Here is the input.
Amino acid sequence: MSNRYLIYIGPAKMLKPVSEKYYKEVITSGSKNLTFLIVTNTPLRRIIPQIRDIVLNNIALGITVYIVSYGEFNQMLNHLKECIHNNVDEITSIDIYVIRGYKEYSDKIKSFLKDLNISYKEVVL
Here is the structure.
């Protein structure tokens, strides 16, 4: 059960700076139970080093990390809808970071968030 969601969509080039900045916000806010969703076709061997230290150093936050390819997006979206719908009263923030050119994916997420009347913050990189 997460109360903060970070959704990153795009190639891994901006993943490290985005995740470092976001984790600093999470730590200072005192939040627990963070779900970090990464949607990319970048190979895992290039993603893991960018987030490994942040995740391991902050494991006490209760971090869950999902990494899916663009081809798996619709399946992941159904799972995300279910998780958010079941925990809608406990969610404190949903932040979407999307690389320009990948907005079709964030638009699908924003559409169901609007249907559930859930606010979110989107940053286009």
